[in-house]
Each structure stands twice: as structure tokens, then as C-alpha cells.
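sorry for the late reply, my laptop died twice this morning and i had to redo everyting from scratch. anyway the thing you sent over, i finally got around to it. pasting the sequence first so we're on the same page, its 208 residues, then the predicted structure underneath. double check i copied it right bc i was rushing
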Amino acid sequence: MRIKTLVLIPVIAVLTTCVVSLPIAQNHTSANAPQKSKVILTPEDEINRYLIERSRVIASRSFKRDYIGKQIVDTARDYFGVPYCRGGESSRCFDCSGFIQYVFDKNGIEVPRTADQQLESMTIIPESEAQQGDLVFFVYSNGYAHHAGIYVGNNTILHSPRPGERVRLEEIWSTRVIFARQESMLIKVPHSVEAILEEPKTEDGIGY
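ok and here's the structure:
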């Protein structure tokens, strides 16, 4: 019995010391922990942050634009030789706008049904900026779109031409065309930045 008593007393003493010392160590650590300081952004900081974010979005959008454009053209190529039919909007037969709607839908992009509606829903771009996957609209003198095709590059389109024809690659044959792009990504300017950017610039009290 004496041996057991001699062994237990040191063990209990050690455990007691550990338990008591733990809160002291924790309190010491928390007291010396660095405090987070609140960051206050100036109008100039916010503008710079917005411009940096915008450049990232534009770069991301450009990459996505190229990727989706290639996917659209690749999808359109899968339907080479499908015959034209008026009102056609399935892989059995297409009219020009039905072909476009079908191909875009395969890539998760919704567009209206007719060529003129498609033109109205999109952003017109200069011919020099046209990339694969953009659309080319053939228009009358009043601007009404009567035909459309998917731009491939090098002045060529994939389209479903007319009755008796089939989906094919063809060079753009007219100068009365409009190039347009489906925009699915936009960046919103923060209100605080928008207000600063819209402030009139002045120097010595004179607007310029």
C-alpha cells in the first residue's frame, strides 16, 4: 500500500500542474495576438480596384469568347449536309435562323427564332472585330435581316441557304451584311465608382 501511495502522489501533482498552467498559456497568447486593423478605401483606391477587376473580367471574357466561338463552329460543322426546309429547326432539316438557334442551344445559349429577331437581340460589331461563332446577317436596304449564317473566319459562313440546298460553308457574297455578337457577360460599374467617374473634370474652376 505504501508503494501505491508513493507512485500516485507524483502523478497527481504533475497532472494538476498541467491543468493549471494551460489557461495561463492561453491567456498569454490571446493577449499578445495582433489585432486586425480596418482598411478604409479612398475613392482613388476604389477606382483602381475596379479597373483591376475589369481587366480580369475582360481577359476572362476574351478567353471564354474564343472558346465558345470555336465550340459553336465545331457544333455547326456536325450538321454539314442537312437539307434546308422552311421553318426547320431540328437536325432533320433547317432554315437559316433555325440552324443558328439549334447550334447555339446545343452550346447552352438561347437566341430568338427568326433572323431579324436574332439581329435585334445582339450587339452589332465592326467586320474587323468579327471572330468565329459571331453571326452575319444579310439585310435589305431598310435594315431588315432576311438571312443569317455563323461566321467561321476568312470571310466565310456556315449556313442553311435555301430550298433545295444543304448546310454548307460558303464565302460571304454580299456587301450588305451586318456582323453581330451574342453578349452573355457584362461587368457592372459600382455606384460609388460610377458617381466619381461621372463628375465633371475641372481645372481652376473651368470645366474641360
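The domain at 44-180 is CATH 3.90.1720.10 (endopeptidase fold (from Nostoc punctiforme)).
thats about all i looked at so far, will dig more tmrw
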